[in-house]
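Case study 2.
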Amino acid sequence: MLGTPELKARVSRIQETIWYSILILLLATIAGGLVIYELTHRGELSEEFLARSEGIDFAIGLVFMTDFLLTIWIVPKKLVYLFSLSGFLNFLSSFPLEENGYRLLRLLRFTRGVRMAQAGLQSQQELAKQQELRQQRDKTTKLATIEREGRITNSA
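Prediction:
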């Protein structure tokens, strides 16, 4: 069941939803905001705040690592994805980091969230276009059927 195409398709559909993109963007924004706050308030932050910040960032990193691993599991060309710019950045930004010295990698999470949100919005726009085309096609088909039925009735 783990590698079934149905399960992979279901996970892929979930990753393409706008809500999933919003969740990733929200987590990325929180992670980025924490890093920026830490950078702008150096020396002023308590050990307790830093510990909580690291804990939150670690949890966000675990979510991103899970997302990365699911993406690797789903994509048909795994090596192509891994060596693409997007795949490489997602790989780097998915590590749950506890050390403050890795702030740059932590900031990559924010860019990942933005990229995912853009991809989610593009998917939603494509779905809306497909739905609009289907509706137009259905409308045209109905009109053609009505017109054909009218001709049959008139000729009888």
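The radius of gyration is 24 Å.
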